Backbone:
């Protein structure tokens, strides 16, 4: 399975809504990085990643999120991660990235 | 004592790693492992392959099924050198993930050996 990324700007709450669908791995993470950087170039804002349709993420995907987090931090923005599946939550816990991103149940 | 071996070789290209994931989950499910354990194996093996990508032209994976354990050997997987490089940081994350999800992870000169114990009644 590949990756589809739905991106929308939420004008009311002034933040990016990102819905990745499928797998974020070494093959698809460059695409995610490009989409997210483009969005931040366009508008500096918080990012909300909705993980409802995210089936899989690996270390390269986590690495991509860390590099995007660096950009958002420079802008004093945050990355929120919501609705992630237990198998993906487990990876955030293992790598202690649950302390770096704002994970909402 | 059972010792069944399955071998898989893929070109060192990122797009084939999903094929390895599918293969590993299919073998693991045949062994009667739980959904969580299958997921652990899938993620760990994927990390091992990602680690091997830049070191070799083709990635060799060997699945060994014993009565009491499922062993996966991947060649050309190595621990990263100490550095602040982005790739190295991801590689460290990958190894941390493998070590956390598998029962045993042993690095050898050739690569890595990852083991999941099979409980009685799994098969």
Residues:
């Amino acid at each position: 399975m590949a990756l589809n990324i739905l991106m929308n700007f939420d004008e009311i709450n002034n933040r990016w809504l990102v819905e990745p669908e499928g797998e974020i791995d070494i093959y698809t993470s460059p695409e995610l990085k490009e989409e997210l950087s483009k969005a931040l170039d366009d508008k500096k804002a918080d990012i909300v990643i909705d993980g409802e349709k995210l089936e899989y993420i690996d270390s390269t995907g986590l690495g991509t999120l860390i590099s995007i987090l660096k950009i958002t931090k420079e802008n004093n923005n945050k990355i929120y991660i919501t609705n992630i599946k237990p198998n993906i939550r487990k990876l955030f816990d293992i790598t202690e990235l649950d302390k770096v991103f704002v994970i909402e149940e | 004592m059972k010792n069944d071996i399955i071998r898989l070789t893929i070109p060192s290209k990122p797009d084939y790693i999903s094929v390895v994931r599918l293969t590993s989950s299919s073998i693991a499910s045949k062994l009667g492992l739980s959904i969580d354990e299958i997921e652990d194996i899938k993620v760990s093996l994927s990390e091992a392959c990602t680690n091997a990508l830049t070191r070799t032209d083709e990635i060799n994976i060997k699945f060994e099924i014993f009565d009491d354990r499922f062993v996966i050997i991947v060649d050309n997987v190595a621990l990263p050198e100490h550095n602040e490089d982005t790739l190295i940081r991801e590689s460290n994350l990958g190894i941390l993930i493998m070590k956390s999800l598998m029962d045993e992870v042993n690095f050898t000169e050739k690569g890595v050996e990852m083991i999941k114990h099979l409980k009685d009644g799994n098969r």
Notes: Residues 69 and 118 of chain B are 5 Å apart (CA to CA). Chain B has one domain: 3-117.
